């Protein structure tokens, strides 16, 4: 019988390692010798194992799988991966919490990131959404401040409810997302039981160059399931990694989670006269205005073999769009299109696109970018590194990138002035969509959290709940033992007056 050949243990440059248990020393016990290159290499590499943590979405879990087209959407987009019924495209998905650090609990009340990379034959398309259809703010200039308030107090390094609610109560457009965050959907039972939403509106365009505005929805086939506040709190203690484990174990058992993918579509004419600002990420498009149209189905059927290689190094950007898709003028989207790749360059280096999980699979990447840290392919060999050239280098695609969008106006920092109302959609959610049981859990969740902020901040925030619905505001006020007359008075003021009245 042939003996199985043993694998040789080598250093990083292939030289055999003779002993991995005993440091080389001068005599015994030591001192240790600098010439023990194996020890030096091993410790030095270990010292550099951690890369910068993502500033948001640090804690996550991921899996591979496929997307399959189930319905014809060629009327709306010329994207090749959506061009034929039954066509499959490989995907890699990453789900995450937002505010917590890499070691934080999966069950915290927080939006969940929902990112999917599609390795298409026209390059990578990244869907970079959340499990909520709206966001807290509509201007990227506010984003770093908003995130600071969700993280830790600069002095104590503790979570601080004053920071959290001070900012939100000064930012009235957040009320829709705050209502969703404090509803049952703020604590999904695991990543398998939640939907994903693009939030932003995108442009899709077809072969004829006709364009449409589109929002994208991933609806879980497992059904929506959430924890109550008490269940989530218990899970934070008992198994802080439960959602990471749930995704991994389900796939390992062969129970592959799946999502149905839909779009909502509006024509440019419809958007022009729409009662809401169609590019405002604090608003949904009500289903009655733009019904869901089916597109396809995503199935996750492959666990990563190595967490760091695939999940930690995965890098998504809402700007990674393929022909047939383009950005909208949503300012938050525009800010993210800069900020995501910039964060990846900081975290992973300028050549992060060469990491296997991030590199395009369906197409050969060919351009004139060269060098930089960790250039780990052939760096385009001897091919020309400038354009234009007469040495057979790659040439730009002959068609324009996407249909031109007409814009006009003067450059200025425009104060948001669309007449739409920040309270109308959360009013629908609170008053019509939620059951009485959901409403009472929502109130309980808010009272529990807001109750730890200063009273003047509680008053300012409760006035916003009152603006949504007097029942909503009154119940929060009662839960916090606030003076209802004072809340009502604040609710009737303008935001400027309310802020003045509730500042220290
Ligand atoms: P519909 O009356 O057609 O349906 C209500 C939708 O609300 C459901 O389809 C479900 O979305 C979602 N929903 C149910 N419970 C909750 C909850 N506790 N927290 C958050 N969302 C919940 O809705 P409309 O389109 O007329 O919108 C009414 C309100 O519903 C909106 O103002 C918005 O707050 C909320 N909503 C709307 C969505 C949209 O894209 N139109 C998406 C999600 C919420 P789903 O089917 O996506 O699970």
Structure, explained:
The chain has helices at 37-47, 143-150, 161-169, 175-181, 229-238, 242-252, 268-272, 307-312, 331-348, 424-433, 436-450, 455-468, 470-479, 484-492, 495-501, and strands at residues 60-69, 88-97, 112-120, 123-130, 196-197, 202-205, 211-220, 258-266, 293-302, 325-326. It has 504 residues and is of the alpha+beta class. Strands 1, 2, 3, 4, 5, 6, 7, 8, 9 and 10 form a 10-stranded antiparallel sheet that branches. A hairpin with a 5-residue loop joins strand 6 (202-205) and strand 7 (211-220). It starts with 36 loop residues before the first helix and ends with a helix. It binds NADPH dihydro-nicotinamide-adenine-dinucleotide phosphate.
The level 1 CATH classification of the largest domain is: Mainly Beta
Total E-strand runs: 10
Tell me the domain tally: 2
CATH fold group of the largest domain: Catalase HpII,  Chain A, domain 1
CATH architecture field of the largest domain: Beta Barrel
Uncertain segments: none
Compute the separation of the termini in Å: 84 Å
Largest sheet: 10 strands, antiparallel
Rg on CA atoms, Å:
26 Å
Oligomeric organization of the protein chains:
single chain
Task: Give me the secondary-structure category.
Answer: alpha+beta
The average pLDDT value, as a whole number, equals 96
Instruction: Choose one word for the global shape.
Output: globular
Helical residue percent band: 25-40%
- Distinct small molecules: NADPH dihydro-nicotinamide-adenine-dinucleotide phosphate
Order of helices and strands: HEEEEHHHEEEHHEHEHEHHHHHHH
């Amino acid at each position: 019988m042939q003996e199985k050949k043993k694998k040789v243990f080598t250093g990083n440059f292939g030289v055999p390692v003779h002993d991995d248990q005993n440091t080389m020393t001068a005599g015994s016990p030591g001192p240790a010798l600098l010439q023990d290159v194996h020890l030096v290499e091993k410790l030095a590499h270990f010292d550099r194992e951690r890369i910068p943590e993502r500033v948001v979405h640090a804690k996550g879990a991921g899996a591979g799988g496929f997307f399959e087209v189930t319905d014809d959407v060629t009327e709306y987009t010329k994207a090749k991966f959506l061009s034929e019924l039954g066509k499959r495209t490989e995907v890699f998905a990453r789900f995450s919490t937002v505010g917590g650090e890499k070691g934080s609990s999966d069950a915290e009340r927080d939006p969940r990131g929902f990112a999917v990379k599609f390795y298409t034959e026209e390059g990578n398309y990244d869907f970079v959404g959340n499990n909520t259809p709206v966001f807290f703010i509509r201007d990227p200039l506010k984003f770093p401040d908003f995130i600071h308030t969700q993280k830790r107090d600069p002095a104590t390094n503790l979570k601080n409810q004053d920071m959290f609610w001070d900012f939100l109560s000064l930012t009235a457009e957040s009320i829709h997302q705050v209502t969703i965050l404090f509803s049952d959907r703020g604590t999904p039972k695991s990543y398998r039981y939640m939907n994903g939403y693009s939030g932003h509106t995108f442009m899709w365009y077809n072969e004829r160059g006709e364009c449409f505005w589109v929002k994208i929805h991933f609806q879980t086939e497992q059904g929506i399931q959430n924890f109550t506040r008490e269940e989530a709190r218990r899970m934070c203690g008992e198994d802080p990694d439960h959602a990471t484990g749930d995704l991994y174990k389900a796939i390992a058992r062969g129970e592959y989670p799946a999502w149905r993918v839909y779009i909502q579509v509006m024509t440019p004419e419809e958007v022009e006269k729409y009662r809401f600002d169609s590019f405002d990420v604090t608003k949904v498009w009500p289903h009655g205005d733009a019904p869901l149209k089916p597109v396809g189905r995503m199935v996750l059927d492959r666990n990563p073999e190595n967490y760091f290689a695939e999940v930690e190094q995965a890098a998504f950007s809402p700007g990674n769009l393929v022909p047939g898709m383009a950005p909208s003028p949503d300012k938050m989207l525009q800010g993210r299109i800069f900020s995501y790749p910039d964060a990846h360059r900081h975290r992973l280096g300028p050549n992060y696109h060469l990491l296997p999980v991030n590199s395009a699979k369906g197409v050969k990447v060919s351009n004139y970018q060269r060098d930089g840290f960790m250039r780990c392919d052939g760096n385009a060999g001897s091919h020309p590194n400038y354009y234009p050239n007469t040495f057979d280098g790659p040439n730009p695609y002959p068609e324009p990138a996407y249909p031109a969008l007409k814009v006009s106006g003067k450059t200025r920092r425009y104060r948001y002035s669309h007449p739409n109302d920040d309270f109308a959609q959360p009013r629908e959610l609170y008053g019509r969509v939620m059951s009485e049981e959901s409403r009472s859990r929502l109130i309980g969740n808010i009272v529990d959290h807001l109750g730890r902020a200063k009273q003047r901040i509680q008053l300012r925030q409760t006035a916003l709940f009152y603006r949504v619905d007097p029942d909503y505001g009154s119940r929060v006020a009662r839960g916090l033992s606030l003076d209802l007359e004072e809340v009502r008075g604040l609710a009737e003021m303008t935001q400027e007056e309310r802020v003045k009245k509730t500042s220290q």
